[in-house]
Amino acid sequence: MPDQHHGSHTQTENELQRGLSNRHIQLIAIGGAIGTGLFMGSGKTISLTGPSILFVYMIIGTAIFFVLRAMGELLLSNLKYKSFSDFASDILGPGAGFFVGWSYWFTWVVTAVADVIAITGYSQYWWPHLQQWIPAIIVIGLLLALNLPSVKNFGEIEFWFALIKIVAIFALIVVGIFMIAISFQLPNGGTASVTNLWSDGGFFPHGIVGFLGAFQIALFAFLGAELVGTAAAETRDPHKTLPKAINAVPVRIILFYVLTLAVILMVTPWQDIDPAKSPFVTMFSLAGFGFAASLVNFVVLTSATSSANSGIFSTSRMIYGLAEEGSAPRIFRILSPGGVPRNALFLTSVLLLSSLVLLYSGESVISAFTLVTTVAAVLAIFNWTMILVSYLVYRKKHPERHEASTYKMPGGMLACWVVLVFFIAMVVILAFYDDTRQALFAMPLWFVLLGIGWMFVRKNPTHLELQKKAQLSRVKDTSYEDSL
Q1: Is 474 among the domain residues?
Q2: Phi, psi values for residue 20, rounded to 5°
Q3: pLDDT digits (tens, 9 = 90+) for 58-77
Q4: Distance of alpha carbon 214 from its chain centroid, rounded?
């Protein structure tokens, strides 16, 4: 790719197009912060941990913010970095880039599968007798058709999906606060009140065991926050848009997670929330607002579709980057006239059909969702960990780039180590619970398969040649200070 100075976005025909504007990237960042785990999975986390779910989201949100700040400094230290695998390859070595690239690709494939499963569950709210494969096939086909023309299409789709989520959440907060203010009487005899947060067993009704058990799906809810980094390669002005999007993350966490769930828990006592359903829908249903519940169900369905859309976008760009370096078949290097890696899009769409197998083999939609989200959570922890490890090595190998950066990570290397310890603790926690242990223990197989793949790829002449070219493209004249 040619140099990308401020505002410059000239490309050749065989490159990803910088078709995302500031409007797109900001809404992509917000959309990534409001994931399916919040809408679909928070019912289960509330049943496990009660009102202390608010602390769960605050803790994870803080850790993710530091990951994003480390990622932001790394991406802006060299504008030739288009993804996590790029800076992992450059800083940690080609093998690390191979593992990170393929793991991030698989993360989003698994996440998109979870979203398709969630969409099926939401559809049952209106059509309980509808065959599960019908909404799954419809959404996969629709997203493929919408993403094929250009990256601008993806930006526009995400812009409107994110806008729907934002408006819905603000509406829920306003309606919820009004219900609390007038002490609204629920049809089941309860009352909307702030005291619902602690009146039934306190903030930790299931103790520390329940509190820790809520972290799995809560972690999944944040998967996608890092999508802003993947999209940076197709942003017109990364120096402006990337820091702006990342710096807004703490406010978004407080607003979209903590405040929203606090309002739900004040209106609807935590023990009345069905773990198999979205608490957003449950709140309005229990309040007797049937039409509002249907409207919210539409919103959570679009949220899952938005997340699946992000998965299709992210996986196609990641496998394109891997193919550019010879770590994936060269057929995935082919771009359409609109600069879209369409072969990669077709691959992801085919893999999403695995959601049908999970839907028909599992006990329920939520059990299939839990299995898939555990796999996604473990992969996400690996990806986030590799970002932090890359940052630690970057600080030692390129101190001059760190000094020149105007977007330094707060807390530096110490913050990295603290978050790494937190991620290790999360993996240990997943091993203690029956519904997450199975997926966790199966994950080493993925890394064994990657190791076998790397043994073949690393000696491939095409891979060696493309790796050399990629390395030469990341020379000093494209570093942070020279791109300003």
Answers
A1: yes
A2: -95, 125
A3: 999 899 999 999 998 898 88
A4: 18
